[in-house]
């Protein structure tokens, strides 16, 4: 599944974290899909601080917008390293609109009716840098989301794929990137790396050396089992309630007043000062 | 420099890696011992060092440096060390007329500024000299620290842009190194600092994180150091990606030991 990510069109989000970086996977996917690579270098001077005149007009956003107006018809993959940089420097709405315009070009063919080739946009996004709002917006634009993770030194990619009019699919693929940036798919972390419980620690019975008795004798156990709980609504209790016995109809309070008691019904607490 | 830390990082001044960004961060403790380590490390490696010191005075770093075996005054005099003393020169922004923008020019600006003048200062300071007489190995930028720039009114994106440019020029073009310190606010909700810390973490090759102990202050164990190497996911990598050690800072050195193995406890 990981190696056929770019077969579908649209936006593919590669979400990585500090612990599991995604740049090498981005490079591996670019290497896999690209026959001819055009490299726009915005690394050295993205904000045009050097003012040498070499910078492309409009900066990274201008370059991205220029790709919306391309005239060649072949399939193209646009890899963005990184979307996080764009999201920190541009308003989220502007970026989303540009990404939508770039990735859905094949739905709006040019006037002469000839079909435009498929556009794949592969964007690297650093999860910890953005709040839930921008992440959710980009997520909803994306056809496929690949979230990087891993365990015990082995990297994994969780691929969530949304195809139109089909159920979304969710798969996890273990992989590694070889030094020449080719993608190596793997089965999963091998069993020998899983932590084993130490067989040398003997299990201790906590009930062994107590100073009080926690065990029940046979008679005590039988008595306990035959006890009915006070609030359990058994059939006997139901009978007793349905047919109240007259001797137990009312309850009595027996009260012997003291010598000093003064039962004044109008002032029982004796605190009215009239 | 601390020899034990060199062993943990598997490096020496003679064969240090070049073209790397190292991120130092501290949480609930003082990570400045790492700054002193790298300052003396790169001076001993015969590198040209530009130190943007915004927190302490020159004499403070000099005193600690002498305990670690480097003389900052002499290094500055022979041109190996370019020292921007933030505490002193910040005042110059207001009281001295400058022909060209001062490195800390952003202090004068009312609106959100950028660090382009500071980058120009660093770029000029570490530009390779054509005469070649000095023969320094490679340039190194050290910043102590970046969190204070956020307190002075800059946005996290402006600081990230500055580090991006430093990385492009120093790490990629000149094959030098950049070492920066950022404080982790931890429990206190500080969005700008979190963006700065996470953004730098993604750009770094090596992250050293000094943390206070979860159980509180201890006389014999001053904290714990987490070392994270950010390497591509390679199947044949034998080294661990992340290590954790506890440490104790002494007068002239720092001793490291595995968790729970402090000599005071054993």
Automatic annotation (TrEMBL), chain B:
Q: Where in the cell is it found?
A: Cytoplasm; Nucleus
Where is it mostly found? Answer: cytoplasm
Q: Which GO terms describe its cellular component?
A: cytosol; elongator holoenzyme complex; nucleus
Q: Where are the transmembrane segments?
A: none
Gene3D superfamilies for this protein:
P-loop containing nucleotide triphosphate hydrolases
Q: In which pathway does it act?
A: tRNA modification; 5-methoxycarbonylmethyl-2-thiouridine-tRNA biosynthesis
Keyword terms: Cytoplasm, Nucleus, tRNA processing
Record has Translocase as a keyword: no
Q: State whether keyword Transferase applies.
A: no
Range of residues in the leader sequence: none
Q: Which Pfam families match?
A: ELP6 (PF09807)
Biological-process GO terms, alphabetical: autophagosome maturation; cellular response to stress; homeostasis of number of retina cells; inflammasome-mediated signaling pathway; locomotory behavior; motor behavior; neuromuscular process controlling balance; neuron apoptotic process
In terms of domain of life, where is this protein from? Eukaryota
- Which InterPro entries does the entry link to? ELP6, P-loop_NTPase
- Give the multimer and partner information: Component of the elongator complex which consists of ELP1, ELP2, ELP3, ELP4, ELP5 and ELP6.
- Which PANTHER family does the record cross-reference, listed alphabetically? ELONGATOR COMPLEX PROTEIN 6 (PTHR16184)
- Which family does the record assign? Belongs to the ELP6 family.
State the protein's purpose: Component of the elongator complex which is required for multiple tRNA modifications, including mcm5U (5-methoxycarbonylmethyl uridine), mcm5s2U (5-methoxycarbonylmethyl-2-thiouridine), and ncm5U (5-carbamoylmethyl uridine). The elongator complex catalyzes formation of carboxymethyluridine in the wobble base at position 34 in tRNAs. Involved in cell migration.
Protein name per UniProt: Elongator complex protein 6
- Give the organism the record lists: Callithrix jacchus (White-tufted-ear marmoset)
């Amino acid at each position: 599944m990981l190696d056929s990510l770019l077969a579908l069109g649209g936006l593919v989000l590669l979400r990585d974290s500090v612990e599991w970086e995604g740049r090498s996977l981005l490079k591996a996917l670019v290497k896999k899909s690209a026959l001819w690579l055009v490299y726009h270098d915005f690394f050295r001077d993205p904000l045009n601080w050097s003012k040498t005149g070499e910078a492309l007009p409009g900066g990274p956003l201008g370059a991205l917008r220029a790709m919306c107006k391309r005239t060649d018809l072949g399939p193209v993959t646009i890899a963005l390293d990184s979307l996080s940089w764009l999201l920190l420097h541009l308003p989220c709405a502007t970026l989303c609109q540009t990404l939508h315009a770039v990735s859905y070009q094949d739905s709006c063919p040019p006037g002469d009716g000839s079909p435009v080739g498929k556009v794949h946009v592969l964007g690297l996004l650093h999860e910890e840098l953005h709040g839930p709002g921008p992440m959710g917006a980009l997520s909803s634009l994306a056809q496929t989301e690949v979230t990087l993770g891993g365990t015990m030194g082995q990297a994994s990619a969780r691929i969530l794929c949304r195809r139109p009019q089909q159920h979304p699919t969710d798969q996890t693929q273990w992989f590694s990137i070889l030094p020449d940036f080719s993608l190596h798919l793997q089965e999963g972390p091998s069993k020998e790396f899983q932590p084993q419980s130490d067989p040398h620690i003997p299990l201790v019975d906590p009930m062994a050396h107590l100073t009080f008795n926690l065990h029940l004798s046979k008679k005590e156990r039988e008595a306990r089992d035959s006890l009915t709980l006070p609030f359990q609504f058994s059939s006997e209790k139901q009978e007793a309630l349905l047919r109240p016995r007259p001797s137990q109809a009312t309850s009595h309070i027996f009260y012997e007043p003291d010598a000093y008691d003064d039962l004044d019904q109008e002032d029982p607490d004796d605190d009215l000062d009239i | 420099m601390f020899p034990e830390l060199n062993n943990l990082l598997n490096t020496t001044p003679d064969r240090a890696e070049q073209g790397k960004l190292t991120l130092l961060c501290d949480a609930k403790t003082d990570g400045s011992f790492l700054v002193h380590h790298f300052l003396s490390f790169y001076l001993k490696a015969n590198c040209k060092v530009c130190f943007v010191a915004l927190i302490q005075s020159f004499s403070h770093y000099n005193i600690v440096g002498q305990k670690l075996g480097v003389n900052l005054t002499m290094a500055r005099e022979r041109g190996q060390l370019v020292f921007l003393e933030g505490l002193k020169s910040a005042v110059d922004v207001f009281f001295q007329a400058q022909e060209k923008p001062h490195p800390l020019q952003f202090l004068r600006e009312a609106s959100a500024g950028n660090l382009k003048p500071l980058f120009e200062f660093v770029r000029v300071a570490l530009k390779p000299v054509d005469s070649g007489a000095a023969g320094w190995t490679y340039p190194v930028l050290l910043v102590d620290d970046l969190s204070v720039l956020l307190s002075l009114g800059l946005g996290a994106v402006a600081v990230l842009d500055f580090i991006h440019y430093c990385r492009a020029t120093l790490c990629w073009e000149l094959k030098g190194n950049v070492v920066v310190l950022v404080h982790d606010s931890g429990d206190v909700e500080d969005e700008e600092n979190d963006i700065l810390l996470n953004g730098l973490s993604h750009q770094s090759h090596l992250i050293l994180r000094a943390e206070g102990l979860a159980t509180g202050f201890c006389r014999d164990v001053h904290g714990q150091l987490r070392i994270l190497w950010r390497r591509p996911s390679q199947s044949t990598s034998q080294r661990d990606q992340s290590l954790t050690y506890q440490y104790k800072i002494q007068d002239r050195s720092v001793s490291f030991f595995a968790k729970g193995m402090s000599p005071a406890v054993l």
